[in-house]
Design a protein that fits this description.
The chain is built from 10 helices and 8 strands. With 606 residues, it is an alpha+beta fold. It starts with 14 loop residues before the first helix and ends with a strand. One of its GO terms (cellular component) is plasma membrane.
Length: 606
C-alpha cells in the first residue's frame, strides 16, 4: 500500500509533541530489547534443563548390561537427540545475544545521542526566535510611548501658541519640546521598523530553513528506530528458522530411534542372557516301597516331594554375589582368584551357558588387545629401524625399552588368551546334568587324583599338578567333604589315616562334620557310644542364606531348596562353587547337603 509521506516540518507548531514522541519511540525500542533479553534467558535455561534432563537419565554403570536391548539403545539415541536440541537452543540464545541484543543496544545509544543533539539545536533556535520577538516587542513599546509623548508635546505647543497670556519665550520652549519629542518618536519608529524587519527575517528563516532541518533529523531518527525494530524482529525469526532444519533432523532421529525398537530381538536377547543351559528334570521314577528299606524310602519320598515343586533355573545374576573373604577362609582353598566384580577368574560360579559367553567375550577382548599391542610393537620396530638407518632422527636405544615392555605385555596377553581358551575348552566338555557337588569329587593323594564315589570305591588318576575337570564336571574338594558324603552313605573310608588337608578348610575346625575329622586309627578305634555322642554334636552355623532360585538335588550330597527358603550355612564355598547348608526337618531332624553358591545369598555372622 502506497502511503503519502508528509514531512515532519509540516508539524512546525508541534515541536514539543515531536520531542515526546521520539522519546517514547526510544523507550519502546528498549522495551523490545528487554523482551529479547527475557527470551534469551528462557532459551538458555531451557537448554540447560534439557542437558540436565539428558544427563540425569543417562544409563548408569550398573545398567550397562541392559544396553544391548533395542529399547534401551533407542532411549540412549533419544537422549543424544535431546542433547542436540539443547545445543540448538543454545545457538538460538547466542545468536540473539550477538545479533539482536547488541544491535538494539548500539542503535538505542545512537538514537539517544542524535535526539539529544536535535533537541539541543531546536531549543537554541526556539530561544533565538523568542529573544528576537521580545526585542521587537520592546521596540514597539518604545515607539508607542515616543509617539504618545510627541502627540502630547504637539498639543501643548498648540495650546501655548494660542494662549495670549504666555510670553514669546514660553511659547518657544513648548515648541522646542515638541520638536524633541517628534524626533524621539521618529527615532523609536525607525528602531521599531528595523527590529520588525530583523525579526521577520529571522522568523522566516526559522520556520522555513532552521526548524525544518531539525524536524527532518528527528524524522530520520524516528524512521531509523522503526526500521531497526523491523529488522530486529525479522532477524529474531531468522535465528529461529536457521536452526529449524537441525531441530527437524533431531526429531527425525527420535522417530528413527523409536522405529529401531524390535520386540522380537529384545526377547531373543533376554533368552540369550538368562538361558542357563541346565537340562530340565527327568520324570520322577516310581518307587516300590515294598522293595526298599523304610529309611531309604522315607528319604527318597522326601526328595521327590521337594523336587516336584522345583524348576532348574539359570541366571547371570550370580555375578552380583560377591565372594566373602574373612576369617573363615584362612584355611580354605582359593584355586580360582576373583575378578574385580567378584566373579571367579574362570567364571565357574556361573551357569554353563553364561560361563561360555563370558569366556568367549573375554577371549575376544584379549584377541583385540593382542592385535593392538602387536600393531604398536610393529610400529616401534619400524621406528627403531629408521633410527638405526639415520641416527640424526633419533636414538634407537630410546625405543628399545618400549619394545621390551611391549613384548612383555604381548607375552602376558598370549598367556592369558591360552588360559582362557583352556577354560572355554573345559567348559564345552562339561555335561550340564552332572554339575553337582558330589559328582566325582576328587582328592589329591601322593601325587594321584583319588575320585571317591558314593559307594566308597576309589579311582586313581595321574595328574600333572594342575586341577583338571573330571568326567563329572565338578571341581575337586577336600578329603573331609568326601568323608562327609561317605558318612551320609554309611561309609567312613580314610586314606593314610588323615583327611584334614589344608585345602579343605575343615580340618579340626568347628566347621567339620562329626566323624570326619582326623580319620586316624585312634579315631577309628573310638567306641560306638563315643561316635554317636560326637555325631550328635551339631556344627555351629557360620551364618544364614536365602535361596534366590529353586534348586533340584540331582546327585549325592546335594539337597533341594525352594526359592526364598532360609537355610543355615555350616561351610562356606571353598572355591568349587558349592556351599554346605543345613535345614530343620521335622521328620528326620536336620538335613545337610550342598547347594550352588550362585543360587543363594549368604549373610555370615560377625
Amino acid at each position: 500500500m502506497d502511503i503519502k509521506i508528509c514531512p515532519f516540518f509540516s508539524l512546525q507548531d508541534q515541536y514539543d509533541n515531536l520531542a515526546i514522541h521520539t522519546s517514547k519511540g526510544i523507550e519502546f525500542l528498549d522495551k523490545y530489547a528487554n523482551f529479547i533479553r527475557d527470551r534469551l534467558a528462557i532459551e538458555t535455561e531451557y537448554a540447560a534443563k534439557l542437558r540436565r534432563l539428558a544427563k540425569n537419565y543417562q544409563p548408569k554403570k550398573k545398567e550397562e548390561d541392559d544396553n544391548e536391548f533395542t529399547s534401551h539403545q533407542a532411549f540412549r539415541n533419544v537422549l543424544k537427540e535431546i542433547n542436540d536440541l539443547a545445543g540448538q537452543r543454545e545457538v538460538v540464545a547466542e545468536s540473539l545475544q550477538l545479533q539482536i541484543i547488541q544491535g538494539i543496544t548500539l542503535l538505542s545509544k545512537t538514537l539517544r545521542e542524535e535526539r539529544k543533539k536535535c533537541l539541543s539545536n531546536g531549543t537554541y533556535l526556539q530561544q533565538n526566535l523568542s529573544s528576537q520577538l521580545s526585542a521587537l516587542e520592546r521596540a514597539k513599546r518604545n515607539y508607542e510611548k515616543a509617539y504618545r509623548d510627541s502627540e502630547k508635546a504637539v498639543d501643548n505647543y498648540k495650546k501655548a501658541d494660542m494662549d495670549l497670556n504666555l510670553s514669546r519665550a514660553e511659547v518657544e520652549r513648548y515648541k522646542n519640546i515638541m520638536t524633541a519629542k517628534i524626533q524621539q518618536s521618529d527615532d523609536a519608529k525607525n528602531e521599531y521598523a528595523n527590529q520588525l524587519q530583523k525579526t521577520n527575517n529571522l522568523q522566516q528563516q526559522h520556520y522555513n530553513e532552521l526548524l525544518p532541518e531539525v524536524f527532518n533529523r528527528l524524522q530520520e531518527l524516528d524512521e531509523k528506530r522503526t526500521r531497526g525494530i523491523r529488522e530486529f524482529i525479522i532477524g529474531a525469526a531468522d535465528v529461529e528458522s536457521s536452526v529449524a532444519p537441525i531441530i527437524a533432523r533431531c526429531l527425525e532421529g527420535m522417530v528413527k530411534a523409536g522405529e529401531s525398537i524390535n520386540e522380537k530381538e529384545d526377547s531373543y536377547k533376554v533368552i540369550e542372557r538368562y538361558q542357563s543351559g541346565f537340562t530340565p528334570p527327568t520324570d520322577i521314577p516310581f518307587e516300590d516301597l515294598s522293595k526298599q528299606d523304610p529309611e531309604s524310602s522315607q528319604e527318597s519320598h522326601y526328595n521327590n516331594v521337594q523336587s516336584s515343586h522345583l524348576t532348574v533355573k539359570g541366571t547371570i545374576s550370580a555375578n552380583r554375589i560377591k565372594k566373602r573373604v574373612g576369617i573363615f577362609n584362612i584355611f580354605g582353598s582359593n584355586k580360582n582368584s576373583l575378578t574385580a566384580d567378584g566373579q571367579k577368574e574362570d567364571f565357574s560360579d556361573l551357569p554353563p551357558n553364561q560361563r561360555r559367553k563370558k569366556l568367549q567375550a573375554k577371549i575376544a577382548e584379549l584377541q583385540q588387545k593382542i592385535a593392538q599391542e602387536t600393531a604398536a610393537r610393529d610400529g616401534l620396530m619400524k621406528m627403531k629401524v629408521v633410527y638405526e638407518a639415520n641416527s640424526s632422527l633419533g636414538n634407537p636405544m630410546t625405543v628399545e625399552g618400549q619394545l621390551n615392555e611391549s613384548e612383555h605385555k604381548l607375552e602376558k596377553l598370549k598367556i592369558d588368551l591360552k588360559k582362557y581358551q583352556g577354560y572355554l575348552e573345559r567348559a564345552n566338555q562339561i555335561p550340564m546334568a552332572s554339575n553337582s557337588p558330589q559328582a566325582n569329587r576328587n582328592n589329591l593323594h601322593n601325587g594321584h587324583r583319588v575320585s571317591r564315589h558314593s559307594n566308597g570305591s576309589t579311582e586313581d588318576n595321574n595328574e600333572d599338578g594342575d586341577d583338571q575337570p573330571d568326567d563329572g564336571g565338578s571341581l575337586s574338594r577336600s578329603d573331609s567333604e568326601d568323608n562327609v558324603a561317605q558318612i551320609q552313605n554309611g561309609h567312613n573310608n580314610n586314606n593314610n589315616g588323615s583327611s584334614a588337608s589344608p585345602e579343605s578348610g575343615l580340618g579340626t575346625s568347628h566347621t567339620s562334620l562329626p566323624g570326619s575329622g582326623q580319620g586316624s586309627a585312634h579315631d577309628n578305634a573310638m567306641g560306638e557310644d563315643a561316635y554317636y555322642e560326637t555325631e550328635m554334636e551339631l556344627l555351629q552355623p557360620l551364618g544364614t542364606c536365602r535361596a534366590l532360585y529353586p534348586f533340584e538335588a540331582t546327585s549325592e550330597g546335594s539337597i533341594p531348596m525352594n526359592e526364598g527358603e532360609v537355610l543355615q550355612v555350616i561351610e562356606i564355598d571353598q572355591g568349587d562353587g558349592w556351599t554346605r547348608v543345613r535345614r530343620l526337618n521335622n521328620t528326620n531332624g536336620w538335613d545337610e547337603g550342598f547347594v550352588p553358591t550362585s543360587y543363594i545369598e549368604c549373610t555370615l555372622y560377625a
